[in-house]
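The following record pairs a protein chain with its ligand, heme C.
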Amino acid sequence: MKVKLLLSSIVLVATTAVASPFEKPEDAIHYRQSAFTMIAANFGDMAEMVKGRKDWNQDVFAQRAQYISQLSLMPEEAFNVEGSDKGDTKAKPEIWSDWNGFTGKLTKFQGDLAQLANVSSEGDERATKKAFGVAAKNCKSCHTDYKFR
Ligand code: HEC
């Protein structure tokens, strides 16, 4: 009985260690803000191309779309950290009180970015710009409900 109990607590500790790369809530906050910072830098450059303020380059655009598609997979686990609702964060409490609503928006964002990465890799400029417009709506939609300005 005692041995069994000990074993199960070892398993629990092991899974916890694997499940989260963050030692402190601040680490999780910094991680998710960094992911969004990288998303925004790439997205901003893409927007400049779409608006014609920078020369259109389908290859560069497709590469950035690939980057942000991957980056968009990263923030979720850094929100799913106890205590990361406090401190140097603009995350609204609604993220945790309405977790399904928040992760729903995140999932839609990820889907639209995967679509953008696919379409842009096929090389059609018009279709790429259209998919960019769809993806761009996600930023404001989520920030309005879940991020302090
Ligand atoms: C599903 C919700 C969601 C979507 C979609 C989303 N964001 Fe955010 N974003 C957040 C939240 C929440 C924060 C606040 C994170 C924090 O401070 O802990 C944030 C923070 C940021 C930040 C600030 C990072 C920092 O260093 O403080 C930038 C920039 C940003 N987002 C840009 C974007 C852009 C650009 C898009 C669209 C391409 C986007 N976000 C899409 C939820 C979202």
